[in-house]
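User: Can you fold this complex?
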Amino acid sequence: MRDTAGLVVTGLGVTTAVGQGKTAFTRALFAAEHRFAVMDRPGRQLGTRFVGAELPALEPTTRLGARELRTASLTGQVALSTLEEAWTEAGLDGCDPDRVGLVIGGSNLQQRELVRAQDRHRAKPHFLRPSYGLSFLDTDLCGLCTSAFGIRGLAHTVGGASASGQLAVIEAAEAVASGRVDVCVALGALADLSHWELLGLHAMGAMAAEDHADAPADACRPFDKARSGFVYGEACAALVIERRGARPDAPAPYARLSGWSVRLDGNRDPNPSLDGETAAIRQALDRAGLTARDIDYVNPHGTASPAGDTTEVAALKACGLTHAAVNATKSITGHGLTAAGAVEAAASLLQMRHGRLHPTRNLTDPVDDAPRWVRGAPVEADIQHCLSLSMGFGGINTALCLSACDA
Amino acid sequence: MSPAHVGTRPTPPSSEGTHMTKDQTFTLITEAVREILPELADRDLHESDTLDALGANSMDRAEIVMTVLEEMDLDIPLVETHGPQNLGELARHLSDTAAVKAR
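Assistant: Here's the predicted assembly.
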């Protein structure tokens, strides 16, 4: 029996270029920090000067040893560390492993490492390492995480392009709502792009112009008139979802997952759809039993895509959401692609808990004056109901309502 | 070896010739073992040690052997390395195979 009532988030893990862990991340959000630079991780440039936000050295998980971590990709290592933070906060070690699940958002997650392995062995393919046969699969992340944390209930990936992270939250919520598991962790996985994916996204006009290499701090500017596309950012987030009160020793929840929606445009292309976005917003609100007036804060998709940002603002206006505060987390983190929806759900929950909204970087000349932009400095805010939005290439629109537990 | 070299280079009498010796191969094996099983970094490795007893699972074993094969530039199927029981036997087998392949 599907029962969506009383689903809450009891644990969070976040890893972004501006901070590993909730404490560092939250501080960076309110200070509107950034780490945008010409990227230098091996495999990112091919005669290019792509700007992005790369993780500093990662604090590794304590759950696996050096042997297992040696063949774990960057995406896998970041997933393990991020999951550990959420798992520890929620206190899941005592749970029945058969009743715990994991949904990982994202596909084609380890492209950079695959390209590097292929390049290393192009002239001697017979010596390709056997571990490639395991690690090329996105589901290697499921293997790593379930072995490290003893998860036995369910584990799989879900792909929804840049909506993958939010789709993972939604599918994890559905897994608890349907009774398949009692606790389900949603993880938006780090999309480790190689120079090939960056070149492709650049060629299609989705990424900010390369001439930002001389002023990387200015490159990422969601909702600003001078925006020219998204700027990539390495990121990952994990959310522990369960039914409120199901475990007596569970920590106080961050918020309720009060409603959600997944709407498709029936469109293979990357272009956004006003109809699809408004349909997702309205359905999520309806399922949450809310009206637009109830929403205090919107965490938008806001990638700085020229068409995407204007369409999203039009959707907010069409849905009567111009009274709500809006900021753009990607102005600080960059676009985590498959991770973005989970990172932004985490950012929304952390802002709700702190009663404070982070400013939007580089929003000097907004594309539209109707939304109540948060920019310049953080603002205090009592957020009872929040709406987080994600969109993905191929006509994917997702919306998620987060509500204070006593609202 | 390219055809131009055939017959111009003496065939080594054994694996102790111009090819990697068994001892050199053993050293390569120990380096690969320590890379793939990092917890053994400080442990002495002996010819009588077996990969099983050292804690290698089947994936670890395949990784170790492939690492050594690449170092030796010895292109043989992994299945042909399954006979030897310990590190010394594996070193002997690989150095002998390399010598035969080079003839």
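The two ends of chain B are 9 Å apart (CA to CA). Chain B touches chain A at residues 35-39, 59-60, 62-63, 66-67, 69-70, 73, 75, 78 (CB under 8 Å).
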